[in-house]
Write a structure and sequence with these properties.
This protein is of the alpha/beta class. It has one domain (about 5-130, about 165-234): Spore Coat Polysaccharide Biosynthesis Protein SpsA, Chain A, CATH 3.90.550.10. The protein has seven helices and twelve strands. The chain has helices spanning about 35-45, 60-70, 85-95, 115-125, 170-185, 195-200, 220-234; strands at about 5-10, 30, 30-35, 50-55, 75-80, 105-110, 130-140, 145, 150-155, 160-165, 170, 205-210. The strands form three sheets. Strands 1, 4, 5, 6, 7, 10, 11 and 12 form an eight-stranded mixed sheet that branches. The structure holds cytidine-5'-monophosphate.
Length: about 230
């Protein structure tokens, strides 16, 4: 199968300290913007077709500068995102509609440590016949339910609980139809694409995610990512 790629990067990243320091997907780690690392992994993967970066209209210049730093940016196009992640994904999917891809991977720009091995694993699961694949890792911490006032109510069993990652990957027509159905039903705030598939009653298959494939959410995550890359370079 040929894979279209949607990289969502239209968020404002407020939790990482924006707007003063700019959205986190353009902040440097290991000497390059976060999004460069992410785009690099997909543009060098041998099964990628067109790559759609979904960006915020205010970030045009930042995005252009990031793309100029890539070794190979020939597959990359961009489109403006929406108010929610869901709307941004749909904008990206619609950009791929004419390109004839059979499958799509939908990835957060702020997960730069994605690796080809995980993409290959997901591709194999799709090739085996799955139409929706979710990379995830078993929850490692002991989980507690607590009150807003800081009191523990109970311990929650972590058996059968997984932390969802991206790229969540799908048969292209299947996820586009699910997204269009969500919009038609007035739903615009699903936090991930597998949730839209689940809402549609589609079977979602788990694939083994990677502990390295973390989402850079707060300022500290960026500092740790920068340190990790700098250490690797030495
Ligand atoms: O806000 P959250 O951490 O869930 O964002 C996950 C990804 O979705 C980020 O890469 C962010 O840039 C993207 N996003 C988007 N459009 C939005 C909100 C988030 O592309 N309106």
């Amino acid at each position: 199968p040929s894979f279209g790629i949607v990289i969502v990067a239209a968020g404002r990243g407020e939790r990482a300290g924006a707007p003063t320091e700019g959205p986190k997907q353009y902040r440097p780690i290991g000497g390059k913007p976060v999004i460069c690392h992410t785009l690099d992994v997909f543009s060098t993967w041998n099964r990628s077709g067109r790559i759609v970066a979904v960006i915020h209209p205010d970030d045009e210049a930042l995005f252009r500068r990031a793309v100029e730093q890539l070794d190979d940016n020939t597959k990359i196009v961009s489109v403006h995102g929406g108010r929610t992640r869901q709307q941004s994904v749909l904008a990206g999917l619609r950009m791929l509609e004419m390109s004839g891809v059979s499958h799509v991977m939908i990835h957060d720009a702020v997960r730069p440590f994605i690796e080809h091995a995980l993409l290959d694993r997901i591709a194999e699961t799709l090739a085996d016949g799955a139409s929706c694949v979710l990379p995830a890792i078993p929850v490692a911490d002991t989980l507690k339910r607590g009150t807003a006032h800081g009191h523990v109510i109970e311990t929650v069993s972590r058996e059968g609980l997984f932390a969802a990652q991206t790229p969540q990957s799908f048969r292209f027509e299947t996820i586009l139809a699910a997204h269009e159905a969500a919009v038609a039903a007035g739903r615009d705030n699903f936090t991930d694409d597998a949730a839209i598939a689940e809402w549609q009653g589609l079977p979602v298959t788990l694939a083994a995610g990677s502990p390295d494939n973390v989402k850079l959410t707060v300022k500290r995550d960026l500092a740790m990512a920068d340190e990790k890359l700098t250490r690797t370079l030495i």
